[in-house]
Design a protein that fits this description.
By secondary structure, the protein is an alpha/beta fold. It has helices at residues 23-37, 45-54, and strands at residues 58-59, 64-65, 70-71, 77-79, 84-85, 90-92, 97-99, 104-105, 110-112, 114-116, 124-126, 129-131, 136-137, 142-144, 148-149, 154-155, 160-161, 164-165, 169-172, 177-181. α1 packs antiparallel against α2 (45-54).
């Protein structure tokens, strides 16, 4: 099988391409993230939010940010008012992630804006993620770069989200298939 070519990863372009900040800021963020954001013993959602804002995250009022969350680059994260970020959520945001108001991102969900040109040279390719107001990404979903989740849409557990998801729909599964409509009763 030696006639099948392999990409030499030592020559892959893109090392540090998504940082957008000096190395010392990225390393200082890594320490602060470990101490104040990812740390399961740190119980204050407010402290987590203040530390994220200190590094450039734009976070609205009343946001709940649970323990064990990870944020690759806080300066590329925007979250609207009253949103809930569940325990163990990972924002692997090499590009912008924009979360609207009144959004729930449940436990262990992974949002990633980066991938690689796997057929060429493994260079980094990034695409932003947008999750609109009122959406709910339930537990252990994967949200891929380029996803635009419509207002009040819902993703069932273990869904892989990609592309454009219409407002008010319920999606499920590895192919993000529409399985219903989400209705909200007014009180």
């Amino acid at each position: 099988m030696s006639d099948i070519p392999v990409i030499d990863l030592s020559k892959a372009p893109g090392e540090r391409a998504a940082w957008d900040r000096p190395a010392w800021v990225v390393y200082l963020w890594a320490v602060c993230e470990l101490l104040f954001v990812t740390n399961p013993w740190q119980i204050s959602s407010g402290l987590r939010v203040r530390v994220l804002k200190a590094f450039g995250a734009q976070i609205g009022s009343g946001v709940v940010f649970r323990p064990r969350t990870r944020v690759k680059f806080p300066w590329k994260l925007t979250i609207g008012d009253r949103s809930w970020i569940g325990e163990g959520v990972w924002f692997h945001n090499q590009d912008r992630i924009s979360v609207g108001s009144d959004v729930v991102i449940s436990q262990e969900t992974f949002l990633t804006t980066g991938s690689h040109a796997h057929r060429l040279d493994m260079r980094l390719i990034t695409r932003p993620i947008e999750i609109q107001d009122g959406a709910w990404v339930t537990s252990r979903c994967v949200v891929l770069g380029g996803t635009n989740m419509g207002r009040n849409a819902l993703a069932k557990p273990l869904t892989v989200l990609s592309g454009s998801i219409s407002a008010g729909v319920i999606v499920a599964g590895p192919d993000c298939e529409t399985v219903g409509r989400r209705t909200i009763e007014e009180r």
